[in-house]
What we know:
Elements: H1 6-18, H2 21-29, H3 42-55, H4 61-69, H5 73-78, H6 86-98, H7 112-132, E1 142-151, H8 167-173, E2 182-185, E3 196-207, E4 221-228, H9 234-246, E5 253-256, H10 258-261, H11 269-274, E6 278-281, E7 290-292, E8 299-301, E9 304-306, H12 336-360, E10 365-369, E11 375-379, H13 381-384, H14 399-403, E12 406-409, H15 410-413, H16 425-431, H17 435-445, H18 461-487
Parallel strand pairs: 1-5, 5-6
Antiparallel strand pairs: 1-3, 2-3, 3-4, 7-8, 8-9, 10-11, 11-12
Amino acid sequence: MTYISRSEFDRAVLHVRGTGVPATLEAKLASPMGGRPRDLSVEVLFAGMLLSSTHKKNLLHTSIYSVLAGLAGNVRRHYGIEHLKVWQVRYLISAITDLYENTPLRRPEMSTTERFRRRNQLQELVDSLVGHTIKDVPSTGSYAIDNTAIDTTARLRGRRKDFNQHVTTIHAKKPLHDVDARTGYRTETYANRTHWVYGYQMGALSRVAPEDAPGSVPHLIDRIFLVPGNEAGLPETVEALDSLRESGAPVREVLVDKGYSQAAFDDFSGPMHERNIDIVMDLKKDQHTVVPNDDIGYLILDGQAFCPTLPPRLRNLHLVEDLTAKNPEGRTHITAEEQQAWDERAAARKEFMQLIAERNTYRLESKGPARNRKGIRYVCPVTTGRLDVSTHPAPHLRKECCRKSITIPFSVHGKLRQKHVWGTREWFRSYARRTAVERFFGNIKGLTGIMRAGWTLQVGLVKLQLMTAITVMAHNLKTLLRWTKAHGANGSFIAAIEVAEVEIIDPSPGIDPASLPEHLQPA
Length: 523
């Protein structure tokens, strides 16, 4: 049995109760016929799940039961779980998820309207659980976005081509234990050793510090979503950003990788420009294409407008680095091969930056958005003095480029237009902040994380989404408490909470409940 103090369990209950989710679920679960009330309440169950994710590093039914059954007798009597059984944990989790089941293979007779209603309500529940943990920390408006693969507990049966067939065909030939899971692409790593995943993709929006104040905010997760493994989650990403904006949080810029830069304009870049959200994204080598404009003559390269006299040698620049070569600074034992690999990487980066700086002199200078807010005004770099007039005389250029500003619509820029010119020092410094979301995935899926093989034996999109929300909730609390302890008191109620290795949400002795915010006041 895992020992959990009364104060830590009370704190977990307060956090869960503050989300408002238990009250909503209790109302939905209440029987119109009346009857004997359940011994196990929703808020006690969620508190047990929260503590199981931190103490047990899993969300198995037996582990959740072990956490609750391991409480002191007076605590169990206080919360009405003195005679708790493991089947009660299993029953209540299934009852909750049954309220939101909406996938076609599990609810084939459900109407489209009801399906979308349940899907939206489930996402609102997840947003409430995750969002409550960060509501007292102001957002900077900058978010790093990425997806990570989550394996299902079920085994894959049959060939992948069967997945897109009709449900009757699937069950008639090779029944699947997890009918919501799909086979999709994942990044191959040392841990998984494969490019394929059978399960789901989890998208996460991690807040990051502004460019001018690195390290000024804790890397908390504001929104998550779960989709089948063969989906990219682009509509869900836009919906998550809209949800943040509706909650009053600013959304000024997003940092994304090559997976988002390959998306169609209408799926990602277009919606971001419509919402006036800046993008910082990486590009693949085959995306460095030159699109000339026949009317005026400018060039569109990497989503930016350039002078038509740009030399061909500067039109397709891409940095190829050996990412295994590490900086030897601060290390005591360096082999000659490691030093040589790093020197070659540094030389390649230096040469690339010089070429990018030279190409940047040919870029048309932005003068702000157009009056109709559907494009950007530019002037030629020759007229601004950035490009040498002696090497680029006006007669050799189009008069439209040299003598007046031009307006280039967003649709002409294409999907690759972003806040900084790709490859510049400003772009590298800004894009480096995206490691925040990668660090989050590493924390929950690493050797000391929770999302390892067998972390939950539950299958299905709805059940996994609920389990993931609890996991992220615990991660946010741990991150926030440890960050606050490292940076000292900041006037928040979090500063009064003692951070321990195990009891990460246990208040320090002597804390006055009256000093807590209203949403954390004891009942």
